[in-house]
Amino acid sequence: MTISRRQFLQSSSLAAAAITSSGLWSRGAWGVEPPAANLLSEFSYGDVLMASDLHESQLMTTHAVLMALSEDSLLKPLRQMSGMPAPGEDLGGWYDYDPDYDYRKHFDRGFAPACTFGQWVSALARAYAINGDEETRQKVLRLNRLYAQTISADFYIKNRFPAYTYDKLLLGLLDSHTYVKDPQALAILEQTTNTALPHLPGHAVEHGVPWRMDHNDDPSWTWDESYTVSENLLLASQRGAGRRYYDLGLQYLDDTTWFDPLSRNEDVLNGRHAYSHVNSLCSAMMAYMVAGSEKHLRAARNAFAMLQAQSYATGGWGPDETLRAPGSSDVYASLTNTHHSFETPCGSYAHFKLTRYLLRVTRDARYGDSMERVMYNTILGAKPLQENGETFYYADYNLDAKRVYKEARWPCCSGTLPQVATDYRINMYFRGPQAVYVNLYVPSTLRWTRNGAALSLTQEGDYPYENHVSFTVTTSKPTELTLHFRIPAWAEGASVFVNGARQKGLAVPGQFAAIRREWKTGDRVELDLPLKMRLETIDTQHTDTVALLRGPLVLMAVKPQQGAPAPKVTREQLLAAKRVSERQWLVSSASGAVTMLPFTFLGTLPYTTYFKVV
Ligand SMILES: [Zn+2]
What we know:
By secondary structure, the protein is α+β, with helices and mostly antiparallel strands. Among the domains are: 435-528, Immunoglobulin-like, CATH 2.60.40; 533-612, no CATH class. 38% of the residues lie in helices and 17% in strands. It contains 19 helices and 22 strands. The strands form four sheets. Strands 15, 16, 17, 18, 19, 20, 21 and 22 form an eight-stranded antiparallel β-sheet that branches. A seven-stranded antiparallel β-sheet has the order 2-7-8-9-14-11-12. Helix 3 (53-68) crosses helix 18, helix 13 packs antiparallel against helix 14 and helix 16 (344-362) packs parallel to helix 18. The longest helix has 19 residues, at 162-180. It is globular and about 65 Å long. Bound molecules: zinc ion (ZN). Zinc ion binds at residues 343, 345-346, 411-413, 416.
């Protein structure tokens, strides 16, 4: 397909209409003004300079893998399914197209053809917003044009995951429009939407419910995720794609069996596919942020609380990719009956978006606490994405665990990991009308302008290994504003200092500490966040099964070898863990000394996250 100048002009006038009439639309469904004016905003990707090796190496590695992918290989399943010549090697794994695919025979090759294409375009576009690299920009432009040639109904007809794949393609094009300023992105999106819509169910269809009558005998054709697409449709309407996306976004909200009961605080999580349902809560948040629906905000807040009640100490959730009944022993049982504890890249991607939206709406520090936990204990410890498609998928919280790649290459998690790696920047800081919120403590510099002043805020320290985080302000002219710093709920005895003076009563665990003043270059803020050891139980019925935490970090016990019995320790012995180096602790026990490491430094060592204390 080539986009004519006429089509392009049409799409840009649509975009202009979207901006001018956005206030009007939002009166639609619920008859209320959207709360957008009260939301904290995200900074741009390019506003944050990172100085953390762990975060930056994940971004560099994933970006290098994406940049090196052959474009013919990326296009291959799209071309094959559309009946076009498809030169080049197969990428392999989930990404390939296999017309004879049968999930009962071989789960690996051909499960979800081209499912990650849109996510990779999205991650490249976001990376361009960070690095401004011309090669990255050119790659996005080329991929979008090559992709546009393949748009066909057959792609959706032959696809087990038409809504899932459409959702990712949509976001890739939207990010190309927003961050790369691809002038054709919205027109290609229109073409994609026109082609996909007749092959989507028209409303949210739950996992496992048959809706494609030509594939009634094969359950794998009921695993699409149409209940997650509203988020990006509503986002598209906000970013200028047109009113149609707003209407579609509302049309696909999964109300009857999911958001309605959740909004009444009924726990209906049990048995649902974990990642996709947590991801769908982002649609509920978007329904609030874009259209002002209080019901959907209630649904998301309630569901998040239910999710926390069944989360591991790491912040991860959903053993065997399944959400659980309230008060069940399933999460406890997962410590011995599975190694598939938390779908880490997809799960953390959904978790970060959800908590980011919740934080922007509520300014409640607990959502930042949760992000921090998931970041340090799960995704930052993901094994690096490999050029051959080897991908870290499940974090393992079995009592006999190790860090491994998934057998299947290029799974869903190879699509979300590159997006997570770009997004640390937009999770760390937020802005209000006269305020900046510091949410995550990661060495970095934020640069922004306000009322004609150019400001920067640089944070330093070795948190979460050391208590101390320090911030230095520079500004082109003295500027009055409020800086807010998250004081984690576990940080009893925390203190805040401004230019060396302790601010009494300011640091309340579980809240943001607000400092309003006229800031000048050289002003310093210091935080002291006491990293006390503590134990968390797996659930309320198994209080002798505990994890050891120090601040936001879970310390995991290294086992001498796979299959070795769990170390016999007492609560007192765990709490008395001695630091023996910057990243390592020792617990003395009757069965000998036990080395404790955070997830990010476990390497290939066998480990356990939980102990049965004696
Ligand atoms: Zn995944």
